[in-house]
Design brief:
This protein is an alpha+beta fold. The chain has one domain. 22% of the residues lie in helices and 22% in strands. Strands 1-2-3-5-4 form a five-stranded antiparallel β-sheet. The longest helix is centred in the C-terminal third of the chain and has 11 residues. The radius of gyration is 13 Å and the shape is globular. The structure holds zinc ion.
């Protein structure tokens, strides 16, 4: 068994493999997505007033970085939209989170990177 984020299963690995994505254990926030790393000692952009960020993991691929969040619900759409503007991101939300029953999936990428059908 290879390394994978907490909550991931064999289906997740198959999904990532098909897309040429490699899990990045250091990925946990929008800074990693936007700049490749986070320089805050304790990142304040990874939780708190952003309920759209929960059970976050990141993947590296030939088309750039992909941050996946799997919250049970999302109520902070205004914050999500503002964060997308601030960091130059786009987001796709689906109802197919694999973290646990009832989670949704929020895919975040840089605006200039291609966003396939996830
Ligand atoms: Zn950060």
């Amino acid at each position: 068994m290879s390394e994978r984020p907490y909550g991931a299963n064999a289906d997740t690995e198959e999904w990532a493999k098909k897309r040429g994505l490699r899990w990045s254990p250091r990925a946990h926030c929008l800074h990693w997505l936007a700049k490749g790393r986070c320089t805050m000692p304790v990142c304040t952009y990874s939780d708190g007033n952003r309920d759209y960020l929960d059970h976050v993991c990141g993947y590296l691929g030939k088309d750039g970085r992909l941050l996946i969040s799997q919250p049970y619900s999302v109520s902070t759409f205004r914050q999500l939209a503002d964060d997308c503007d601030e960091f130059g991101l786009k987001a796709v939300i689906t109802g197919t989170g694999w973290y646990g029953h009832g989670t949704v999936c929020v895919y975040l990428r840089l605006r200039d990177d291609p966003m396939e059908d996830e």
